C-alpha cells in the first residue's frame, strides 16, 4: 500500500504522456483522480509500514516506508495540496505541468514516509527535480532555476554525505521515526553539520534564503502552492526526525545557533515582507518569517514547542497553499502581481476576496484559525523552556504579519477599483473547489487541533512532557 | 491538580443558543445575502432579539450560587489536550451579554433604516452578527484562550466594519491600523497566557484564579500583559490612535463596537481577572494611572474636534479611561457600572448623531451644522439626554457610575487620580456642550462656503462622499425604524443609574458574590461631597462652553469665531498631541526602513553577492583548466613530462634517494 | 685488448641517457616522424634495462619482454606512419604545431 | 624433457582465454567475410558476426565466474574480478557495435569492426593481466587498435585526434615500459604481486619504477595532470569510438591499477607509495568537473566528466580496503552504463552527416524527442550522482569507503567536485527542456531503433542497480 502510494503518482505522471497533448481535460481529470486516490491511500495507510531489504554493507539500509508519527500529517497535507493544485492548474502545456505536480507529489511522499535515511536522502534529491524542470520550463528568469538548483542541490549533497557517514558510524540507516543508535566520534559534528546545512537551506533560514523569494516568484502558482506549503517543510521535518531524534547532543550543543538564525529569519522575513510590492514575494518572505519560528521551536527541545511546531507546519502549509492559489487566480486574471497596479478587486470578486481573506487571516494568526493554535503552542513551549526573551521577540513577527498580510489583502482586494485592470469574472466553481478544502481545513485545524498533536514526542529526546501527558497527570 | 471551574456545571441549551444564534445569522446573511435583500436586516435584528430574550431567560442560571460556584458553566469541547473550552455565564458576563444583545439588538434595528439602500446591506448585517458572536465568545469563554479567540475575532469584525466601505482608501487604512494595533494587544495577552500556562499549568479561569499564588512575582507581568491587550482594545494611551480613525465605519458600527461593547472588552478583562489585580498593587497603580491619563487626554482632544463622530470617539476614549481607572485601582463594581451606563448613553449619542448625519447627507462636520434643534427636535432630545448623562448631571445614569469611579479612586488610595477624574468631568461637560451648541443652536451653516469656516480641504475634513451609502430620495426606509431604538434608549440613559443608588443598591447586591470585598482606605471627603465637586466641575465646563458657543454674542459671530478657532488651533491639539506621528516614526517608519534595508541591500548585495563570487570563481577556475588545452601536442607532452617529473621527484624522495 | 667487465650501472646509465634523449625528442621536435623515432628510443632504452637485468637476475622474462617490445614497437611504427601520412597527406612539410584544430 | 619445454602450459591455461579467443576469431571472421564478398560485406552481416562473437564471449566468460585459476604462470588470473571486468569490456563493445550500426558507413565497416574487436581483446587481456608482460601486451593491443579507429574517418579533426592520441599515448607507454623495466630490474620478477610486495626500503629503483608505472596507468585513465589528451581525442574521434574509449580503456587500466593497489597495500610503505595516486584522483575530481563548465561539445564535456568520474573510482580504492574495491567496481559498472547511455542518446540524434554532439543539438530536445530527452536527463543525473540512479548509490558507497578508510579529504573533494559538476550537467538538462523557439525549424529525423534501445537498456540497468539490492559485497568479487 505504502509503496503503491509513493509509486502511483510517479507512474501516473509518466502515463499522462500517453494522452494526447491537447486533451487537457482528460489530463486534469486523471491528475485529480490520482490525487484523490493518494489522499485515500494516505488515510488508509496510517500506522502501517512496509520494509524490503536493500543494502547490507557498508551499513544496513532498507526500503522502509511508514508513518513516523509526524510524516503522516505532512503527507496528508501534501496530498491535499496536490489535489488543490491540480484542480487550480491552468497553465500552458498543462499535460506536462500536471505530470510535474504528480512527480513532485510522489517524490515528496517518499521523503515524508521514508523510514530509512538513505531512502529519505534519495527522495530528497528527487523532489528537487520537478521543481527545477518547472522553473526551467515555466519560469520567467533562467537565473532562478539556477539559483534554486545551486542552493538545493548543494544541500542535497551534504545530506548524502552526512547520510553515508551516519550509516557507517551507526551501522544502519533504518532509523527514522525513532531515537536512533547513539553515534559518537570526531566525525559526528560534521555529520550534523551536513544534515543541518541541507535542512536549513531547504527550509530556508537566513542567510540561506535568497533562492526562495525568486523561486516562489517564478514558479507557476499551483506548483508554488505545493512547494511553498510542503516542500519547505522537508527541512523542518528533517530537523525533527533526524537532528532531534538521531543527533540530539549536537542539536543541543548548537541550539543557540539555530535559535539565533531562527530569530533573525523571523524578524528579517517579516520586515522585508512589509515593503515588497510583488505579492508572491510578500508570501515568500512571510514564509521565511514563519518557518524561522518553527526552527526556534525545534531547537528548544521542548515537547510543547515541538507539538506546536508540527501543528504549525500543517497550518502554514494550508494557508500558504491557499494564498498562493488565490494569488494565482489574481495573476491569471489581471496579468500582474504588483501591489502598485492591483486594487479594488473585492467588489467584483467577492468569492476570491473571501478566500484570500481567510487565508491571510490564518497567516497572520487570527485566533480560531489554524495558524493561531500553532503559534500559541509553539511560543508557550519556547517560554516554558526558559527562553523568555526569545518568546517575547517571537511575538513581534506576529504583529508585523498582521501589517503585511493586511497590506497584501487590502492592496489586492480593497480600495477603489482600478480602471485599467482587465476585468474578469469571479472564481469559477472549479477554482473555488480548489481552494475550499484548504479553507475548510484551516478552520477545522484551528477549532480542533488535538489530533495533530497526538504523535509520540518521546522519540525526539524532548526535555519537558508534552501536552497530552500533562493532561493524563491532571486526571 | 484539581480542576476549579467557576460556575455550576450543567447543560444550558439557552446559553449555547444565545451564543450561536448570531453566528447562524451571520452565516445566513453572508450566504444568502443576494436572495434575502432587505430581509437580511430583519434577520440580523431578529437573531439578536432572540438572543436578548434568551439572555433574560438565563438570568437565574447566571446568578445561581451554590457553594462558591457562581453562575452557569457549560462544557463544550477539548481544544487541545488538557484545555477544555466551555461557556461561563456569571453576573459579570451576564451584564456584558445583556448589553451586547440588548443594545446590539437596538442598534441592529436602527441599522435597518440607516443602511437602507446600501448595496452591501446583507454583508453589513453578516458582519454585525458575526461581531456579536465574537463578542459573546469573548465574554462567555471560561478560559484565557477562548477569551483570546473572542478577542481576536472581535478585532476582525471591527476590521471588517471599519473597512466596510472598502473602496475608500481612508477606510481601508483605518481598518488596517485598528487591526494591527489590536494585534499588539493580542500578542501581549498571548504572552500573559504563556506565563500563566508555564507557572500555573492551566488556562481555565477557575484553575488560574484558584492557583494564582503560584504565579508569584510573575503576577505583575501577567497583569501588564493583559493590560496591554486591554489598552489596545479599549483605546488606552498610547494605543488609542486607531479609535478616532475607526469612525470611518458606518455610524451604527461606531455605536455598537466602538462605543458600547467591543472597546469595553478591556474593562471586562480586568474585571474578570480581578483576583489577579487585587494581589498586585503595582498593576493597580499602573493601570489606574493610565486609565486616568487616558480619560484626561481623551477629554482634552475631544475639545479640538470638528467631526461629530470624532468628538464622540474621543469622549468614548475618555469614558473608557474612567472605567479602566475604576477597575484598575480595584473599584471593580464602579468600573463595571460605568460600562453599563456608558453603553446606553454612548449608543444613544452615536445613534442620535447618526440621525443627524443621515439627515444631512453624510455631513459630519459640526462647523457646517447649527440650528438643527428646530429641524430635528427628536434628535435634539436624544442627544441632550445623552449629554446630560455623560456629563453626570445628578439623576441621569452617568452621574451614579462616574462618581462611583472617581470616588473609588480616592477610596483605594489614589488622590491624584481622583483629582484628574474631577478635572476630566469638567472638560467633558465643556466639549459635550460645545457639540450641542454647535449642532443644535444658532443658525444653519451648511450652506456657508467651507473656506469661510476655515475648512481648507472639505474632502479631508470628515465629510466622506460615498455615493453607495447615500440613500436615494425615493427609497428612504420608514423614519420610525431609526427613531424607535433611539427612543427606547432614552429610558436607560436616564434611569439606569438608579440601580446603583444607595448603600445596598441592587447593583452591589448583584455583584456581591462576584467580586471579593474591596479594601478601601479612609477618605478625607465623602462620596456625596464627590458628587458636589463633580457637579461643580461640570457647571464650570458648561459655563465655558456656553460663553464660547452658546451665548448670543457668540452665536452672532459664529462663522468668524469658528474660522478663527480653526485657524488658530494649537498644533498639538490639531495633531492629537502627536501620538500618531510618534507611533508612525517609532514603529511604522522604522519597520519599513529595516525592510527596505534588508530587502534591497542585504539580500541582493551581501548574501547573493557572496554566492555570486563563489560561482564566478568556479567559472574562472573552469576557464583556467580549459586554458591548458592549447591543442598543441607538444604542450600536452610537456605537461605529461612535468607530471612525470613531479611523480618521480616524489617517489625519489619518498623512496629514500638522497 | 683487455676485456673489462661492464657493470650493470653502465647499462642502466646508457638506457637512462637514451630514455631522456627520447623524452626530449618528443617534447622538443616538431616533426611527427622524429617524435615517433624518439618514442622508439624510449622503448629501446627500456629494452636495454630488460636485457641487462635478465642477465643480472638470470631470469629470461627480461629477454622475452624485450622481444615483445620490439614487436609492439614495430606495429606502433607502422600505425604511426600511416597516421602521419594521413594527416599530412597534402602538406608540404610536416609540423605538429600546425595541427591544433581541437583545443579549449 | 622436451615435452615439458615444448608445452609448459596445460589446456586449463588456454581455456582461460576462450572468451578472448572468440572475440579475436570474430574479428578474423569479419575480415574473411569481407574478403570473400563481392564488394563489401553487408553491414548487417559484419555487425551480426561481431555481435555474435561478443555475445558468445560474454556467455563463455560468464560461465567462468567462480573459477579461480592462475593461468600462464600468473600471467592471467582467472577469477570473479577478471570475469566482471571482461564482461564490462564486452558490454562496451556491444554498445559500440550498436552505435556503429547507426553511424558507420559500409565501405570501411569490416576493418573498423575488426579493429574494434581486437581492441576489445586488449582490454579483456588487461582485465585479467597480473604480470607486466600481459599488462603491456593488453595495453598495446588496446591502444594500437584505438589509434587506427580514431583516425578512421575522412576529416581533419579525426586524424588530428589520432595523431595526438598516437604520440601522447605512445610516450606514456614509453614511460610505462621504462617503469616496468625498472620494476623488473629492482625485483627480478614480472609478477605484480611479487613487485608490489618487494621490500621498499632503500630500493630507489623500485620507487622510480613505480612512479613511471603509475604514470602510465594514470595516463590511460586520464587522471589530471595526465589528462590533456583526452578532451581533444574524445572530441575528434568518431562517436562510437569515443564511447568505446571512454569505457574500455578505463576498465582495462582500472583492472590493472586495482590489482596493483590490492597487491601493494599490505606492504609496509604502501601508504606512501600510493599517496600520489589519491592526490591526483582528488585533483581530477575537482579539475575534471571544473573543466566541464565551459564546454559546448558533448563529447568534450564527457571527456572532462570522465576525468572526474575516474577520479571518483580511483578514490574509492584509497585505503585499499576490500569494501573500497567493491565500491569502485560498483561505480565502474554504473559508470559504464551511464556513459554508454549518454553516447547512445547522442548517436540517436546524430545523422550520417552530422554527429549529434554539439550542445546546440540538444536545445529543445524535450519537445522533439521527449523520451530521448528524459533518458539523457537520467544519464546526466546519474553522472552527477543524483537519485534515483546507480550513480547516487555509487557515490554514497564511495563516500562511505573514503570516510571509513580515513580519507575524508577525498570525500570532501568528491563533494566539491560533485557540486561543481551539477552545474555542468544541469546545463545540458536545461538546454533540452528549455523551450526552443525554432523547434519547428529543426526537423526531427528518424531515430535508429538500435541506439534507442541501447539507451533504454542502459537506463533500465541503472535504475535496477539503484533499487535492486545488488549489495556490492555479495555479487562483486575481490581482485581474485
How would you characterize the overall build of this protein?
The complex is a heterotetramer of chains A (475), B (658), C (104) and D (480). Chain A is mainly alpha-helical. Chain A has a domain of 180 residues. Chain A has 19 helices and two strands. About 2% of the residues of chain B have low confidence. Chain C has a single domain, classed as Helix Hairpins, CATH 1.10.287. Chain C is elongated, with a radius of gyration of 18 Å. In chain D, 69% of the residues are buried. Helix content of chain D is 75%, strand content 1%. In chain D, strands 1-2 form a two-stranded antiparallel ribbon. Chain D is mainly alpha-helical and 480 residues long.
Give a quick precis of the structure.
The complex is a heterotetramer of chains A (475), B (658), C (104) and D (480). Chain B has 658 residues and is mainly alpha-helical.
Specify the helix fraction band of chain D: over 70%
What strand order characterises the main sheet of chain D?
1-2
- Mind telling me the C-alpha Rg of chain D? 22 Å
Distance from N terminus to C terminus of chain D (CA atoms, Å) equals: 33 Å
- Most extensive interface, chain pair and sizes: A-B, 60 and 54 residues
List how many beta strands of chain B DSSP finds: 5
Q: Taking strands numbered 1, 2, ... along the chain, how are they ordered across the largest sheet of chain B?
A: 1-4-5
* Number of DSSP strand runs of chain D: 2
Shape of chain D: globular
Seen as an oligomer or otherwise, the chain set is heterotetramer
Uncertain spans of chain B, ≥5 residues at pLDDT below 50?
A: 460-474
Label the overall shape of chain B: globular
Major β-sheet of chain B, in short?
3 strands, mixed
Quickly count the domains of chain B: 2
What portion of the residues of chain B fall into strands of 2 or more residues?
under 5%
Chart the SSEs and their pairings.
The complex is a heterotetramer of chains A (475), B (658), C (104) and D (480).
Chain B: E1 8-9, H1 13-31, H2 33-36, H3 39-57, H4 59-63, E2 65-66, E3 69-70, E4 72-80, E5 83-89, H5 91-114, H6 121-140, H7 144-162, H8 169-200, H9 205-210, H10 218-233, H11 242-245, H12 251-260, H13 265-272, H14 274-277, H15 281-302, H16 308-329, H17 332-359, H18 372-375, H19 377-391, H20 397-411, H21 415-440, H22 479-495, H23 506-510, H24 527-550, H25 552-556, H26 558-567, H27 571-574, H28 579-627, H29 633-654
Parallel strand pairs in B: 1-4
Antiparallel strand pairs in B: 2-3, 4-5
Helix pairs in contact in B: 1-3, 1-6, 3-5, 3-6, 5-6, 5-12, 5-17, 5-22, 6-7, 7-8, 8-10, 10-13, 10-15, 12-17, 13-16, 13-17, 15-16, 15-21, 16-17, 16-20, 16-21, 17-19, 17-20, 17-22, 19-21, 19-22, 20-21, 20-24, 21-24
Chain C: H1 8-28, H2 32-57, H3 61-87
Chain D: H1 2-6, H2 11-16, H3 18-36, H4 43-63, E1 69-71, E2 76-78, H5 80-103, H6 106-128, H7 132-151, H8 156-187, H9 192-196, H10 204-221, H11 229-236, H12 239-264, H13 270-292, H14 298-317, H15 322-348, H16 365-368, H17 370-384, H18 390-405, H19 408-433, H20 449-467, H21 472-475
Antiparallel strand pairs in D: 1-2
Helix pairs in contact in D: 3-4, 3-6, 4-5, 4-6, 5-6, 5-12, 5-15, 6-7, 6-12, 7-8, 7-12, 8-10, 8-11, 10-12, 11-14, 12-14, 12-15, 13-14, 13-19, 14-15, 14-18, 14-19, 15-17, 15-18, 15-20, 17-19, 17-20, 18-19, 18-20
Amino acid at each position: 500500500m505504502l509503496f503503491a502510494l509513493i509509486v502511483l503518482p510517479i507512474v501516473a505522471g509518466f502515463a499522462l504522456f500517453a494522452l494526447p497533448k491537447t486533451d487537457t481535460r482528460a489530463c486534469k481529470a486523471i491528475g485529480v483522480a490520482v490525487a484523490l486516490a493518494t489522499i485515500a491511500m494516505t488515510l488508509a495507510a496510517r500506522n502501517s509500514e512496509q520494509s524490503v531489504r536493500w543494502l547490507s554493507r557498508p551499513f544496513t539500509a532498507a526500503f522502509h516506508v511508514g508513518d513516523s508519527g509526524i510524516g503522516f500529517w505532512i503527507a496528508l497535507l501534501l496530498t491535499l495540496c496536490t489535489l488543490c493544485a491540480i484542480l487550480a492548474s491552468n497553465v500552458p502545456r498543462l499535460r506536462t505541468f500536471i505530470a510535474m505536480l504528480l512527480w513532485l507529489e510522489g517524490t515528496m511522499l517518499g521523503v515524508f514516509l521514508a523510514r530509512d535515511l538513505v531512502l529519505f536522502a534519495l527522495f530528497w534529491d528527487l523532489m528537487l527535480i520537478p521543481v527545477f524542470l518547472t522553473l526551467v520550463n515555466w519560469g520567467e528568469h533562467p537565473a532562478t532555476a539556477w539559483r534554486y538548483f545551486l542552493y538545493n542541490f548543494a544541500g542535497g549533497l551534504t545530506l548524502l554525505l552526512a547520510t553515508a557517514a551516519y550509516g557507517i558510524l551507526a551501522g544502519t540507516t533504518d532509523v527514522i521515526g525513532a531515537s536512533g543508535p547513539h553515534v559518537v566520534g570526531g566525525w559526528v559534528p560534521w555529520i550534523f553539520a551536513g544534515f543541518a546545512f541541507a535542512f536549513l537551506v531547504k527550509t530556508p533560514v537566513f542567510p540561506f534564503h535568497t533562492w526562495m523569494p525568486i523561486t516562489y516568484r517564478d514558479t507557476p502558482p499551483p506548483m508554488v502552492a505545493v512547494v511553498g506549503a510542503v516542500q519547505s517543510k522537508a527541512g523542518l521535518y528533517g530537523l525533527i526526525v533526524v537532528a532531534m531524534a538521531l543527533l540530539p547532543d549536537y542539536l543541543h550543543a548548537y541550539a543557540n545557533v539555530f535559535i539565533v538564525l531562527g530569530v533573525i529569519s523571523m524578524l528579517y522575513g517579516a520586515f522585508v515582507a512589509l515593503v515588497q510590492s510583488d505579492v508572491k514575494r510578500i508570501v515568500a518572505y512571510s514564509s521565511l518569517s514563519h518557518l524561522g519560528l518553527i526552527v526556534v521551536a525545534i531547537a528548544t527541545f521542548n515537547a510543547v514547542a515541538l507539538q506546536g511546531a508540527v501543528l504549525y507546519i500543517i497550518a502554514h502549509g494550508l494557508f500558504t497553499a491557499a494564498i498562493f492559489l488565490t494569488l494565482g487566480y489574481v495573476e491569471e486574471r489581471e496579468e500582474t502581481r504588483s501591489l502598485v497596479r492591483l486594487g479594488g478587486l473585492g467588489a467584483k470578486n467577492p468569492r476570491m476576496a473571501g478566500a484570500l481573506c481567510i487565508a491571510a487571516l490564518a497567516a497572520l494568526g487570527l485566533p480560531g484559525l489554524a495558524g493561531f493554535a500553532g503559534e500559541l503552542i509553539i511560543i508557550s513551549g519556547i517560554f516554558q523552556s526558559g527562553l523568555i526573551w526569545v518568546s517575547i521577540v517571537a511575538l513581534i513577527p506576529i504583529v508585523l504579519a498582521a501589517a503585511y498580510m493586511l497590506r497584501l489583502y487590502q492592496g489586492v482586494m480593497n480600495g477603489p477599483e482600478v480602471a485599467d485592470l482587465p476585468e474578469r469574472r469571479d472564481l469559477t466553481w472549479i477554482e473555488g473547489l480548489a481552494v475550499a478544502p484548504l479553507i475548510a481545513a484551516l478552520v477545522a485545524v484551528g477549532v480542533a487541533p488535538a489530533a495533530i498533536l497526538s504523535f509520540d514526542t518521546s522519540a525526539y529526546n524532548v526535555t519537558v512532557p508534552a501536552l497530552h501527558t500533562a493532561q493524563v497527570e491532571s486526571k | 491538580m484539581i480542576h476549579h471551574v467557576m460556575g455550576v456545571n450543567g447543560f444550558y441549551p439557552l446559553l449555547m443558543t444565545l451564543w450561536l444564534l448570531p453566528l447562524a445569522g451571520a452565516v445566513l446573511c453572508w450566504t444568502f445575502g443576494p436572495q434575502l435583500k432587505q430581509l437580511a436586516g430583519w434577520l440580523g435584528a431578529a437573531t439578536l432579539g432572540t438572543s436578548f430574550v434568551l439572555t433574560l431567560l438565563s438570568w437565574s442560571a447566571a446568578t445561581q450560587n451554590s457553594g462558591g460556584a457562581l453562575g452557569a458553566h457549560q462544557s463544550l469541547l477539548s481544544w487541545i489536550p488538557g484545555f477544555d473550552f466551555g461557556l461561563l455565564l456569571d453576573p459579570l458576563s451576564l451584564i456584558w451579554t445583556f448589553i451586547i444583545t440588548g443594545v446590539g439588538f437596538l442598534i441592529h434595528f436602527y441599522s435597518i433604516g440607516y443602511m437602507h439602500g446600501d448595496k452591501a446591506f446583507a454583508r453589513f448585517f453578516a458582519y454585525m452578527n458575526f461581531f456579536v458572536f465574537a463578542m459573546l465568545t469573548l465574554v462567555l469563554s471560561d478560559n484565557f484562550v477562548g477569551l483570546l479567540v473572542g478577542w481576536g475575532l472581535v478585532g476582525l469584525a471591527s476590521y471588517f466594519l471599519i473597512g466596510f466601505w472598502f473602496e475608500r482608501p481612508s477606510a481601508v487604512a483605518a481598518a488596517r491600523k485598528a487591526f494591527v494595533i489590536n494585534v499588539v494587544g493580542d500578542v501581549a495577552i498571548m504572552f500573559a497566557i504563556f506565563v500563566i500556562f508555564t507557572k500555573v499549568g492551566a488556562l481555565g479561569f477557575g484553575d488560574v484564579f484558584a492557583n494564582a499564588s503560584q504565579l508569584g512575582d510573575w503576577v505583575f507581568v501577567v497583569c501588564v500583559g493583559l493590560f496591554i491587550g486591554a489598552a489596545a482594545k479599549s483605546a488606552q494611551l498610547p494605543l488609542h490612535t486607531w479609535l478616532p480613525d475607526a469612525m470611518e465605519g458606518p455610524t451604527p458600527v461606531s455605536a455598537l463596537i466602538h462605543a458600547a461593547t467591543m472597546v469595553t472588552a478591556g474593562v471586562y478583562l480586568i474585571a474578570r481577572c480581578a483576583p489577579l489585580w487585587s494581589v498586585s498593587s503595582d498593576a493597580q497603580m499602573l493601570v489606574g494611572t493610565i486609565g486616568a491619563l487616558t480619560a484626561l487626554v481623551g477629554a482634552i482632544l475631544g475639545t479640538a474636534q470638528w467631526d461629530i463622530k470624532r468628538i464622540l470617539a474621543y469622549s468614548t476614549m475618555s469614558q473608557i479611561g474612567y472605567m479602566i481607572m475604576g477597575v484598575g485601582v480595584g473599584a471593580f463594581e464602579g468600573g463595571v457600572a460605568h460600562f453599563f451606563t456608558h453603553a446606553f448613553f454612548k449608543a444613544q449619542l452615536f445613534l442620535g448623531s447618526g440621525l443627524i448625519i443621515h439627515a444631512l447627507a453624510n455631513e459630519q462636520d459640526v462647523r457646517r451644522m447649527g440650528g438643527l434643534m428646530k429641524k430635528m427636535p427628536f434628535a435634539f432630545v436624544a442627544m441632550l439626554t445623552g449629554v446630560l448623562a455623560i456629563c453626570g448631571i445628578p439623576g441621569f445614569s452617568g452621574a451614579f457610575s462616574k462618581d462611583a469611579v472617581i470616588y473609588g479612586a480616592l477610596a483605594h488610595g489614589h488622590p491624584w487620580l481622583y483629582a484628574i477624574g474631577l478635572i476630566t468631568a469638567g472638560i467633558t461637560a465643556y466639549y459635550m456642550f460645545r457639540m450641542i451648541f454647535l449642532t443644535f443652536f444658532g443658525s444653519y451653516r451648511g450652506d456657508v462656503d467651507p473656506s469661510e469656516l476655515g475648512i481648507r480641504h472639505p474632502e479631508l475634513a470628515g465629510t466622506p462622499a460615498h455615493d453607495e451609502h447615500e440613500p436615494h430620495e425615493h427609497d428612504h426606509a420608514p423614519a420610525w425604524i431609526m427613531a424607535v431604538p433611539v427612543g427606547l434608549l432614552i429610558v436607560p440613559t436616564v434611569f439606569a443609574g438608579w440601580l446603583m443608588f444607595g448603600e445596598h443598591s441592587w447593583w452591589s447586591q448583584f455583584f456581591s458574590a462576584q467580586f471579593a470585598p474591596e479594601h478601601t482606605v479612609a477618605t478625607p471627603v465623602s462620596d456625596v461631597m464627590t458628587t458636589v465637586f463633580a457637579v461643580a466641575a461640570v457647571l464650570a465646563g458648561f459655563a465655558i462652553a456656553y460663553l464660547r458657543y452658546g451665548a448670543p454674542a457668540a452665536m452672532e459671530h459664529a462663522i468668524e469665531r469658528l474660522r478663527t478657532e480653526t485657524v488658530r488651533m494649537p498644533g498639538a491639539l490639531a495633531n492629537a498631541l502627536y501620538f500618531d506621528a510618534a507611533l508612525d516614526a517609532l514603529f511604522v517608519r522604522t519597520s519599513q526602513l529595516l525592510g527596505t534595508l534588508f530587502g534591497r541591500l542585504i539580500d541582493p548585495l551581501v548574501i547573493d553577492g557572496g554566492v555570486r563570487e563563489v560561482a564566478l570563481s568556479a567559472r574562472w577556475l573552469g576557464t583556467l583548466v580549459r586554458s591548458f588545452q592549447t591543442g598543441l601536442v607538444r604542450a600536452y607532452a610537456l605537461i605529461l613530462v612535468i607530471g612525470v617529473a613531479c611523480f618521480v621527484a616524489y617517489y625519489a624522495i619518498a623512496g629514500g634517494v638522497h | 685488448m683487455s676485456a673489462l667487465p661492464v657493470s650493470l650501472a653502465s647499462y642502466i646509465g646508457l638506457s637512462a641517457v637514451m630514455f631522456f634523449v627520447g623524452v626530449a625528442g618528443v617534447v622538443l621536435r616538431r616533426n611527427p616522424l622524429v617524435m615517433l623515432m624518439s618514442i622508439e628510443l624510449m622503448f629501446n632504452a627500456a629494452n636495454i634495462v630488460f636485457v641487462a637485468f635478465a642477465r643480472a637476475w638470470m631470469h629470461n622474462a627480461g629477454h622475452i619482454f624485450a622481444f615483445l617490445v620490439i614487436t609492439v614497437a614495430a606495429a606502433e611504427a607502422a600505425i604511426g606512419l600511416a597516421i602521419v601520412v594521413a594527416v599530412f597527406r597534402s602538406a608540404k612539410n610536416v609540423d605538429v604545431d600546425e595541427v591544433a584544430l581541437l583545443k579549449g | 624433457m622436451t615435452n615439458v619445454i615444448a608445452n609448459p602450459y596445460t589446456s586449463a591455461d588456454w581455456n582461460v582465454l576462450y572468451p578472448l579467443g572468440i572475440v579475436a576469431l570474430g574479428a578474423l571472421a569479419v575480415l574473411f567475410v569481407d574478403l570473400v564478398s563481392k564488394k563489401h560485406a553487408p553491414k548487417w552481416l559484419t555487425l551480426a558476426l561481431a555481435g555474435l562473437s561478443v555475445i558468445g564471449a560474454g556467455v563463455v566468460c560468464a560461465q567462468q565466474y567462480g573459477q579461480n585459476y592462475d593461468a600462464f604462470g600468473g600471467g592471467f588470473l582467472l577469477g570473479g574480478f577478471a570475469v566482471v571486468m571482461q564482461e564490462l569490456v564486452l558490454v562496451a563493445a556491444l554498445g559500440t557495435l550498436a552505435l556503429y550500426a547507426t553511424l558507420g558507413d559500409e565501405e570501411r565497416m569490416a576493418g573498423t569492426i575488426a579493429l574494434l574487436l581486437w581492441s576489445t581483446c586488449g582490454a579483456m587481456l588487461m582485465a585479467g593481466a597480473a604480470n607486466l608482460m600481459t599488462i603491456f601486451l593488453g595495453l598495446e593491443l588496446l591502444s594500437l587498435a584505438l589509434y587506427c579507429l580514431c583516425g578512421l574517418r575522412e576529416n581533419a579533426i579525426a586524424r588530428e585526434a589520432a595523431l595526438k592520441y598516437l604520440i601522447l599515448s605512445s610516450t606514456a607507454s614509453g614511460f610505462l615500459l621504462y617503469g616496468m623495466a625498472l620494476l623488473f630490474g629492482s625485483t627480478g620478477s614480472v609478477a605484480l604481486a611479487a613487485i608490489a610486495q618487494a621490500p621498499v626500503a632503500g630500493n630507489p629503483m623500485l620507487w622510480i619504477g613505480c612512479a613511471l608505472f603509475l604514470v602510465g596507468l594514470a595516463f590511460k585513465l586520464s587522471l589530471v595532470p595526465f589528462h590533456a589528451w583526452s578532451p581533444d581525442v574524445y572530441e575528434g574521434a568518431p562517436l562510437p569510438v569515443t564511447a568505446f574509449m571512454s569505457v574500455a580503456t578505463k576498465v582495462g587500466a582500472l583492472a590493472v591499477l586495482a590489482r596493483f593497489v590490492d597487491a601493494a597495500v599490505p606492504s609496509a610503505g604502501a601508504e606512501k607509495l600510493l599517496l600520489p595516486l589519491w592526490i591526483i584522483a582528488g585533483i581530477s575530481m575537482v579539475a575534471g568537473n571544473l573543466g566541464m563548465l565551459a564546454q559546448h561539445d558533448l563529447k568534450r564535456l564527457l571527456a572532462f566528466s570522465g576525468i572526474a568520474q575516474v577520479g571518483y573510482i580511483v578514490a574509492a580504492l584509497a585505503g585499499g580496503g576490500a569494501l573500497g574495491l567493491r565500491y569502485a567496481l560498483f561505480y565502474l559498472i554504473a559508470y559504464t552504463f551511464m556513459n554508454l547511455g549518454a553516447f547512445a542518446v547522442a548517436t540517436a540524434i546524430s545523422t550520417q552527416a552530422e554527429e549529434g554532439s554539439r550542445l546546440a543539438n540538444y536545445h529543445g530536445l524535450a519537445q522533439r524527442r521527449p523520451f530521448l530527452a528524459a533518458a539523457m536527463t537520467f544519464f546526466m543525473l546519474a553522472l552527477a550522482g543524483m537519485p534515483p540512479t546507480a550513480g547516487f548509490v555509487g557515490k554514497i558507497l564511495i563516500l562511505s569507503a573514503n570516510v571509513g578508510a580515513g580519507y575524508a579529504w577525498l570525500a570532501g573533494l568528491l563533494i566539491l567536485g560533485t557540486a561543481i559538476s551539477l552545474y555542468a550537467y544541469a546545463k545540458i538538462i536545461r538546454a533540452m527542456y528549455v523551450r526552443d523557439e525554432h523547434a519547428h525549424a529543426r526537423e526531427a529525423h528518424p531515430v535508429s531503433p538500435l541506439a534507442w534501445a541501447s539507451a533504454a537498456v542502459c537506463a533500465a540497468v541503472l535504475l535496477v542497480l539503484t533499487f535492486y539490492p545488488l549489495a556490492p559485497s555479495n555479487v562483486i568479487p575481490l581482485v581474485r
